[in-house]
Design goal:
Length: 360
């Protein structure tokens, strides 16, 4: 099998998707992280496409190394890794389709039939009472967990922060049996994060996410060592070596790789093996609830090291809510998503919608 064409489509001017075509008529689909879509498109079509043409997409490990080298990913990072992620996902989709197996089987088999989701709120403009009311409405829909983003990204120890007040209102509203997760995007100093973390412990918060920025490994370790509440991090890093440092130097309790960043199934396998070796559970980061969510369902199905509820973005997403791009949209039922069982990713794109939303 040979790759005959590679393309990147930007849907609704913000969501980059890729397609890889082959001489056997199998087309692989993948999604990239959504920031800087024009940069991702340039990397895919100008830098990586030439080295993939006429190559075998079934050799996913070799193709992954080729992409990393061609795009100078170890130097450039960021958007380059995101571009490679989408292409790697697409080649695994091709491999699964060619072998007539779902990707979770290629990863070792299905450990679970469905994956529990927690409701992830991205709003930062709600009062504590408004956040509590929102959490109640989602619990009424069947969710068993709620994540809030209460702090101000880029600000350190901002006096307007209402994290504790918000969590207190949410806990009072939803009761003791619903998980609360708190993501502050590195907005606290180490000493203040410890102060906040102790209060979150008393409020029964499930995990405390990025109390310090991902690059401050010493700060993360200081906070993690001082608290009993699990410290989670990893959404802003890309490679197995960075995750090794996060474990050994940052001493976090929960790892949060995102498959449209790390990049793809090929690197996610290595991160999962690393997590297993060090006994660090994974809770995936995922704010893109279409193809990215499908890819995450496959790794969640395959790896027991991913034991908890996983992230599901509840905010309006055009390609899910207004113009669904999946022929069979994902549907959260009683807080669970079923794992697709068809070949490859197990889902199809609605080509009419793709044509409508694409600016390619």
């Amino acid at each position: 099998m040979k790759i005959t064409e590679v393309e990147c489509l930007i849907l609704d001017n913000q969501y980059p998707f890729v397609r890889i075509y082959t001489d056997e008529g199998i087309v692989g689909i993948g999604e990239c992280f959504r920031r800087l879509p024009e940069v991702v498109k340039t990397v895919v079509e100008k830098i990586i496409r030439p080295i993939l043409l006429d190559k075998d997409p079934m050799d996913t490990e070799v193709r992954w190394r080729d992409m990393i080298q061609a795009a100078s990913a170890s130097d450039m990072g960021g958007a380059v890794h995101c571009a490679i992620a989408g292409l790697d996902i697409a080649m695994w989709d091709i491999k699964g389709k060619a072998l007539e197996k779902p990707i979770y089987e290629l990863l070792g088999g299905k450990a679970r039939e469905k994956v529990q989701m927690y409701a992830s709120s991205m709003r930062r403009d709600l009062t504590p009472l408004e956040e509590a009311k929102r959490a109640v409405s989602l619990v009424e829909e069947g969710y068993k967990g709620y994540k809030l983003h209460s702090a101000l990204p880029g600000a350190i120890d901002d006096p307007s922060d209402q994290t504790i007040e918000t969590v207190r209102e949410v806990r009072a509203a939803i009761g003791p049996d619903i998980e609360i997760l708190v993501d502050v995007n590195g907005a606290f100093s180490a000493h203040h994060a410890i102060e906040i973390g102790k209060a979150l412990e008393d409020l029964g918060v499930f995990h405390f996410e990025e109390p310090r920025p991902h690059y401050d490994l010493d700060g993360l370790a200081t906070v993690a060592d001082a608290l009993d509440i699990p410290i989670a991090s990893g959404e802003m890093i890309y490679t197995q070596w960075q995750f090794k440092d996060l474990i050994l130097r940052g001493r976090v309790d929960i790892l949060q790789p995102d498959i449209v960043k790390v990049p793809g199934f090929t690197e996610f396998q290595r991160i999962a093996a690393l997590a297993s070796a060090f006994g660090k559970p994974i809770t995936v980061h995922n704010i893109q609830p279409t193809l990215s969510a499908v890819a995450h369902l496959h790794v969640c199905a395959a790896y027991p090291i991913i034991p908890y509820s996983q992230e599901y973005n509840i905010e309006p997403i055009s390609i899910r809510d207004e113009w669904p791009i999946l022929k069979t949209p994902l549907h959260v039922k009683d807080s669970y998503l079923e794992v697709p069982s068809g070949p490859g990713l197990g889902v199809e794109l609605d080509e009419d919608v793709i044509k409508r939303l694409s600016n390619a």
